[in-house]
Amino acid sequence: MSFVEQGDIFDVIEGLVVKLWKEALGIELPRPFLRMPFAESMAKYGNDKPDLRFDLPHVVLTELVKQHDGGGVPLLLDAVKAGGIVKALRVPASAAFSRTEIDKLEEYVKGMGAKGLARAKVGEQGEWTQSPFAKTITAELRQAINAAVGAEPGDLLLFQFGKAGMVHTVMANLRVHLAKRMGLIPEFGSGGQWRFLWVVDPPLFEYDEEEKTWAAAHHAFTRPHDEDLQYLETDPGKVDCYRYDLVLNGFEIGGGSIRLHDPAVQARVFKAMGISDEEARAKFGFLLDALKMGAPPHGGIALGLDRLVMLLVGASNIREVIAFPKTAQARCLMTSAPSPVDPRQLRELRIQIEQAQQWRAGVMFFESVPAEYQAPLGALRTLTAGQPSSTSTLVLDGEVVKVETTRIPG
């Protein structure tokens, strides 16, 4: 759509979704849909597709730990000094988890690559019991944490600390896992609740630790916020942009952006990513020329209709609503693909196949992984395998799986 702003896209899509729910389910959805900044979504829920049918928010404790210089807990202080974060999640006393059930929660997070699950049971006077921190934490930090999370006697506090990416992922999945254990949401389906929201204002860039440079978090052609342009050359991490996702009950059902139409700003974005004028001209010269000719402000969105239908009908996975889904081995039953390629075709396309080390990957454990993601896991594990035989964890689209690989000689 040309000559549009973010709000125009939202109005059109909300109107479509409201009409769809009315005609398909006879349900009147309230408008406008909630809008949540990306930073808030990550802080409170650990991802950019939060399920708002239940509470259980995360609380970021990083600044509190800094203010109290670790508060007698070296592990927390070390994590913060290393540039990590500290998060807590309060489980209300009504959940009444036994020690055995809490131990199972720790096994659950270890399956995602976490080293463990620190916890504390809140006593009548705010003291902590059943906690590795109880003996050393200062009263001041303990009281500050209790106040920050809204702790009540009998509540269970769960902690994660370390690198932000791991902490967010573990806590996001733990939150949903707890909600299902506590009966707050069903294993699948809406449970009669439809919680839509727009997640907005994400960062334009993310830092690539391997390349030691800034890279586009999504793509380099999203319009930055005008007030953040001042940071393009000095602090790209502060630049937010007009990208947005439509989320329903913890699933992303659509995403889009307002595109960059100013060639001068586009050139500055490329430079922030370490792309020289010459490289930008070689790779994107056609786009830069088109922008100079007067491309209008424009934006759009793409809806995942298969996912939308899955949620509408309450199916357990997306393969149930796809006409010709792939098998668990990534084969198409209708066309028998993939199939061997004729060597003559390869020669015509100047494609040469090198014999590489083969790997066999078997999925050993799934936890809340949509079925449509199961087929590619073997291939993904092939790319990440580093040992002749290993068991490790993959995070795929925010979900967690444990995969075992075995090397095949040859």
- What is the count of helical runs? 12
Principal-axis shape: globular
Question: Uncertain segments of ≥5 residues (pLDDT<50)?
Answer: 358-393, 395-399, 404-410
The number of distinct β-strands equals 15
Structural class: alpha+beta
Number of domains as seen in the coordinates: 3
- H/E topology pattern: HEHEHHEHEEHEHEEEEEHHEHHEHEE
Question: What labels describe this entry?
Answer:
32% helix, 15 strands, disordered C terminus, alpha+beta, 410 residues, 3 domains, BirA Bifunctional Protein, domain 2, 5-stranded antiparallel β-sheet, Gyrase A, domain 2
Model description:
This protein is of the alpha+beta class and 410 residues long. It has three domains: 6-39 and 192-303, BirA Bifunctional Protein, domain 2 (2-Layer Sandwich), CATH 3.30.930; 54-181, GAD-like domain (Gyrase A, domain 2), CATH 3.30.1360; 343-408, no CATH class. Helices cover 32% and strands 21% of the residues. It has helices at residues 6-25, 38-45, 62-67, 74-81, 99-110, 139-149, 164-181, 263-272, 277-292, 305-313, 343-348, 377-384; strands spanning 34-37, 58-60, 85-91, 118-122, 128-129, 156-162, 196-200, 205-208, 213-216, 243-248, 251-258, 299-303, 358-367, 389-396, 399-408. A hairpin with a 2-residue loop joins β10 (243-248) and β11. The radius of gyration is 24 Å and the shape is globular. The N and C termini lie far apart (53 Å). The relative contact order is 0.12. The model is unreliable at 358-393, 395-399 and 404-410 (pLDDT under 50).
